[in-house]
Amino acid sequence: MATNAPTRVKKLYNDLDDIVPESLAGLAEAHPDIVTVDTAQNLVLRAGGPKRGKVALISGGGSGHEPLHGGFVGAGMLDAAAAGHVFTSPVPDQMEAATRAVDGGAGVLHIVKNYTGDVLNFQLAAELVAGQIEVSTVVTNDDVAVQDSLYTAGRRGVGVTVLLEKIAGAHAEAGGSLSEVTATAIKVNAQGRSMGLALTSCVVPAAGTPTFDLGADEVEVGIGIHGEPGRRRERLAPVDDMAEWLVSPIVSDLGLSRGDKVLAFVNGMGGTPLIELYIAFHSVAKILGGQGIAIERSLVGNYITSLEMAGFSVTLLRLDDSLTGLWDAPVHTAALRWGV
Amino acid sequence: MATNAPTRVKKLYNDLDDIVPESLAGLAEAHPDIVTVDTAQNLVLRAGGPKRGKVALISGGGSGHEPLHGGFVGAGMLDAAAAGHVFTSPVPDQMEAATRAVDGGAGVLHIVKNYTGDVLNFQLAAELVAGQIEVSTVVTNDDVAVQDSLYTAGRRGVGVTVLLEKIAGAHAEAGGSLSEVTATAIKVNAQGRSMGLALTSCVVPAAGTPTFDLGADEVEVGIGIHGEPGRRRERLAPVDDMAEWLVSPIVSDLGLSRGDKVLAFVNGMGGTPLIELYIAFHSVAKILGGQGIAIERSLVGNYITSLEMAGFSVTLLRLDDSLTGLWDAPVHTAALRWGV
Predict the structure, then answer these.
(1) Residue A282 annotated to the active site
(2) Which CATH superfamily is domain A18-190 in?
(3) Residue B320 confidence (pLDDT)
(4) CATH class of A192-338
(5) What residues in B contact A337, CB-CB < 8 Å?
(6) A10, A31, A279 member nearest B22 (Cβ)
(7) Sheet strand arrangement including A261-268
(8) Is B69 a catalytic residue?
(9) Those residues with Cβ within 8 angstroms of residue B33's Cβ, 6 or more apart along the chain or in another chain
C-alpha cells in the first residue's frame, strides 16, 4: 500500500458510496416482517404495500440520524422514508417515488424537517404528483436554540419529528382523513419544542475528520443535528446544569406552567450511552418536578442522532388526552414498538 | 478554580459517586409502570412486587453495560437486577436483597455472567438464603474469543446473556418450574456463542482516561465488555472482513451447518451508531446466507455495552421451535418490548 493511500475512517463500512444502501439492506434483512427496501432509490417501505383507504405518511432527509426515519417505518407510524446521503437531502425523485409507492387513495402526508434542501425537494416532489395524488405537508421547526441557522430559514426541525411521526401515524392508522391527520401533525409541532447540546463532534464519513473542534472542557449548547453551531459554548458542567440550559428555554418558549402535562423525550446524539441518558432524564425530571410540570409519558434513547456525536437533546411535548391516546396506540417499527 | 483542580470527565453526570444511583433513578422515573428502584442498594425491581408462584429471575453485575441488566427488568424477562459500580461486581448483600425481594415461593434463578467477582458474589448470596429460598444458578460463558481472560477462569459471559434473560424469562412467565426454567437457560447458553471487536476504548468515569490505547488504524479483535484484551490486533478493514473475523469462530465453535436456523444478534458496544450496526448486520447476513444458515430471528442495537466504546459483537443462537416460541412471547421492559 502506498504511504499516501487514503486512510479508512474508523467506522463500520465497506465503501463510502455503499454506506446508505448497505445500512438500509441490513434494516430490511433484520426486519423483513416490517419493511422492504429499494436500495436503488434508498427508500424504506412498509411491508405489505400501500394500505387501501389509509392516509399514508412519508418522511425523509439526510442519513446519519438513525433510527430516524427508516427505523420508524411500519404499522402505526410511517409508510415510507427516503434516505439521502449522510447529512444530505434526498432528491425530489426519491420523495416522488415514495409518494407514489405508498398512496392508498386517501392522500399522502409529507413530514419534513425544516432544512432548506429537504423543504425544497419535498415541495418539488409534491408538484410532480400534483393532480394525481393529494399531498399535504407539515414542516417541523421545534428547535428553540436558534432562529435561523446554517441550513435553515427559521427554526430547525429536530426531536419533535419523532413524536409527530408516531402520533400522526397513529391517527392515520385509526382512519383519520388527510386533513385530520395533517391537523394533528400541525398540533404536535405547535405543542413541542427541543434543544440539544454536544460534548463531541461527529465525523462525516466522506470528510474523515470532525465537523467542528471542541475543547476537552467545552460544550456546544444549542447544537444542530448536523454539527452546525448552536447558541454558545459553555464550560463542561454537572448534568443538572446542562439539563437546565436546555429545559429552561423550552419551558419558557412553550409557556409551560404548574399543572401542565408533558411527554419528556431525552434523546442521545448517537455516541452517548444509555447510562448517561438516564442520568440526564433524572435531571430533567427534577427540574420539571420542581415547577409542578407532570411527566405523563417519556422516551429515552438514541432516536434522532448525529452519527456518533456525544451529547443529548431534550424535547417536551404538551399533552392532552387526544395526543396521549395516539401516543399509546400500537406501533410496530424497527425502533419503536409496543402493543403488538 | 485552582489550575490543578481535577478536570471533569466529558460525560453526563453530576458527581462520580452518584452515576449509578442517578441513572437507576432516571430509569424508574421514565418507566414507573415497569420498574421500581432501590437507590440505597442499587436494585431494579419489577413493578408490582413478586409474582406469587412464578419462578423469579435475577441478574446483575457491574454497571456500564446498559441497558443490561436494569433495562431488562419487567414482565417476561427479569424480576430484579443488582447494579455494581461501573465495571465492578455488586456485593453479595445486593444479590441477597434482590433474591429476597422477588421470591414468589417458586424459587429464584440467578443469571450470572462468567466473571470471577460476579460468580463468587452470587454464590455467597445463594448461601445466605440457603434453606429459605430455593436458588438455581446459570453462568453464561459464550465468548469464543479467549479461553481464560483477565477477569475469568474460562470463557467470558457476554451477548448470550441478553437472549437467555429473554427466553428463560418467557419460560418463567409461562409457568415453568425452577428446574424447567433452569434447563432452558442452560440450553440457551449451550446453543449460543459470541465474539466482539473494538474500534475505540471507553473511558471509565473514575479513571478519566481510556482503558487502553488503540492506533487510528487498529482494531482489537475479541475484546471483552470491560475493555480487556482480545485475541489479537488487526488493521482496520472493511466491515465485511471484520464481520468474518467474528462470525467464523462462532460458526465453527457452534458447529453450525447448512440448514441450521439461528437468531442473529448484532450488538453495539455503546458508541457505535445504528447506521453502522445495520451495515454490520448486512455483512453477517451475507456470510450466513453464503453458508446456507437461515436467520430466523434478529436483534440489532446497543444491548450489552461497554460505556461509549465503539465496535460491535455478534451473537448467534441456534434456534428450535421451543426457543423461537419463547423468544417471540410478549415482553415489557424498558429496553425490549413487544406483544404488550
Answers:
(1) no
(2) Dihydroxyacetone kinase; domain 1 (3.40.50.10440)
(3) 98
(4) alpha beta
(5) 337-338
(6) A279
(7) A232-235, A218-221, A192-198, A311-318, A261-268, A294-301
(8) no
(9) B47
Cα A155 from chain centre: 14
* Residue of A31, A85, A171, A226 with catalytic role: A226
Strand order through the sheet with A337-338: A74-75, A331-333, A337-338
pLDDT of res. A126: 98
What confidence tens digit (pLDDT) does each residue in A179-223 have?
A: 999 999 999 999 999 999 999 999 999 999 999 999 999 999 999
Q: Hey, how many other C-beta atoms are within 10 angstroms of the C-beta on A286?
A: 17
Vertex B162 angle, CA B52 and B39, to 5°: 60
Interface confidence, given as ipTM, is 0.97
Contact assessment for residue A144 and residue A249, using Cβ atoms and an 8 Å cutoff: yes
A218 touches chain B (CB under 8 A): no
Q: In a mutagenesis test of the B interface, which of A7, A10, A11, A12 is the best target, namely the one with the most B β-carbons within 10 Å?
A: A12
Q: CA-CA distances (angstroms) from residue B95 to B60, B121, B152, B160?
A: 8, 8, 20, 21
Judge: B272–A308 Cβ closer than 8 Å, yes or no.
Answer: yes
| Yes or no, beta carbons of B12 and A240 under 8 Å apart | no
Q: CA A157: distance to chain centroid?
A: 8
pLDDT (tens digit, 9 = 90+) per residue, B147-174? 877 777 899 999 999 999 999 999 999 9
Substitution target from B65, B218, B275, B315 for chain A, most A beta carbons within 10 A: B275
Contacting residues for A215 by C-beta, under 8 A, at least 6 apart? none
User: Do residues B60 and B118 make contact, with C-beta atoms less than 8 angstroms apart?
Assistant: yes
Give how far Cα B133 sits from Cα of B55, B61, B96, B103, B325, Å: 11, 21, 10, 7, 29
Yes or no: say if A36 and A79 are a contact pair by the CB < 8 Å rule.
no
Q: Are strands A192-198 and A218-221 parallel, antiparallel or unpaired?
A: antiparallel
Q: Tell which residue, A55, A57, A25, has the closest CA to residue A38.
A: A25
C-alpha cell at B139: 453462568
Break chain B into its structural domains and give their ranges. 18-190, 192-338
CB contact under 8 A, A64 and B7: no
Q: Which residue from B7, B66, B236 is facing A10, i.e. has the nearest CB?
A: B236
Q: pLDDT band for position A6 (50/70/90)? A: low
Separation of CA B35 from chain center = 18
